Give the backbone structure.
Amino acid sequence: MTVTDILTVLGIPAGEETAAKIAAYHDRILAMNEHINLTGIKDPEESLVKNVYDSLTAYDPAYFPEGGRALDLGTGAGFPGAILAILRPDMQFVLMDSIQKKLRCIETAAEELGIENIKCLHMRAEEGGRRKKLRETFDVAVARAVKSLPVVAEWALPFVKEGGVFLAMKGPGADDELAAAQKLLALMETELEEKKTLRLPTGEERTVLALRKHGPAPKTFPRKVGVAEKSPIL
């Protein structure tokens, strides 16, 4: 499977240049992965599916407005943030992670490939969500395989503008997580707008929850570092 095949299967219109740049980014990350632990998936074909294909399942142009601003929370090796940034060069993407060495690899790959719409931030979500320059400034936030929904929603939603969307990328058990997060979502004036369920070509189940935010996040959120994990709002 090639990147062009993936884009075609998912019905995402993109030119050859975009597909080639996504492929080049993927290859560059896997090359660096031989020296720095960026992803546990070593096989290129498996990585194309479980990193690139999986990243692109979050994409829907309805949630990524022209000229908008997007956040990838807990970006890791840049999946999905860097892939989505290549797909949408008109938007600005902030890729946030608490592990600086991964962000340095993303920055290196982006510089080599001329990806100019990425900014990496070495920061914990609980800290970033309280900063005026970041709080409620994003049209869309994405988090892939980051904690349970009651935890990651507390981290992500303070970044999202009123009217914006948080895309929570989940595996099996998404319905249970969604049920557990209802109290928190109510506090955040956020509700489920769409649930997209699919399977990767390798058979794994994936669910993308599109959570629309209708009002401001309470000033008490996010709570201090580590609190959401120890005492989630259930």
The CA atoms of residues 12 and 60 lie 9 Å apart.
